[in-house]
Amino acid sequence: MPFQLLNLDGVANYLHLTPADIEQRVKNREIPFEKRGNRIVFRQSEIDAWASQRILGLSGQQLAVYHQKSTSQTRKNLPHETILPELLQPGAIASAMTSKTKASVLRDLVALAEKTGNLCDPKALLASLEAREKLCSTAVPGGFALPHPRAHEPYLFVTSFIVVGRPIQEIHCGAPDGQPTHLFFLICCQNDQLHLHTLARLCLLAQKTKLLDQLREAPDAETMRNSLITAEQEVLADRKIVS
Asked: Which residues touch 25 (CB under 8 Å, ≥6 apart)?
C-alpha cells in the first residue's frame, strides 16, 4: 500500500502511539505529513520509512513497549508468536561472506535471497536496498545492520523471509557509533506491519540476549540459525507471550 493516505488517528494506531503523540510530532515537524486544505494526511510509504528508522533507534523500555504492542497487533495474522522459524529458512544464512564493502554486501545478500526461491525481482530489490541506504544507514550500534527495501512491494517476494550474512572481515556501514558491522539481516516482508514487527523483534533480541556474540562465534550457518531461534524463544518466554 505505498500510495495509501492515512489520517491522524490511522497513523497513531499504525505506529502504536497516541493521537497526541502524532500531533506533537507534526507540530515539531518530526514526522512526514502533508496538508490537504485543513486536513493533515500521511503517505503510507513515508510513514513506513520513518517508522523503520525510529525502531532502529529505540532501546530499553521504549523498544520493549513497542515490541509488545506490535506483537499484539500482528498476533491476529500470524499462527505463532515466534516468527524466525518461518522467516529464516535453512540455507538462508551465509556464515563466511567474502564481501569487502557495503555495496558488495548488499549485492551478496540479494544473491543469497535469490537462492531461497522467494525473490521475484533481484534487480528491483537491490535498487530498493540501495535507495533505502541513501536515506540513512540501517547499521546500528552493536555491530549489526538490518537492510530492507525502501518500499514494500508484495510483487517482489513469493513470501516474507529473512536472510543473514556474516562477512569474514568487518565492514564500515555508517553505524551511529562509528564502529564496523559484522552481521547483516536482510528483511524481505510482503507487508509493512510484519516488516516493522520483524525489525522490532530482531532489535530486541540484539539488546536483550547474547545473540550477537553467539552469532559472531558460531562455527557454521546451522549453529547461527539455532542461536537465533533459541534467542527468540527465550525473549518470548520471559514475557510469557509464547503461544
From this structure: 31
Q: Which residues contact 189 (CB under 8 A, 6 or more apart)?
A: 148, 152, 157, 160, 195, 198
**Residue 208 domain boundaries:** 73-238
Q: Decide: helix, strand or coil at residue 187.
A: strand
Is the CB of residue 241 less than 8 Å from the CB of residue 81?
A: yes
243 lies in a domain?
no
Q: Is residue 83 a contact partner of residue 232, using CB atoms and an 8 Å limit?
A: yes
pLDDT at 77 over 70: no
Instruction: Tell me the pLDDT band of 232, cut-offs 50, 70 and 90.
Output: very high
Q: How far apart are CA 47 and CA 35, in angstroms?
A: 15
Q: Residue 90 corresponds to which amino acid?
A: P
Distances (CA, A) of 89 to 53, 94, 115, 160: 26, 12, 11, 11
* Predicted confidence (pLDDT) per residue in 13-61, tens digit: 778 788 888 888 888 888 888 888 888 888 877 887 788 888 888 888 8
d(CA 151, CA 190): 10
Round to whole Å and give the CA distance between 122 and 127.
9
Question: Which CATH number belongs to the domain containing residue 50 in this structure?
Answer: 1.10.1660
In a domain, 34, yes or no: yes
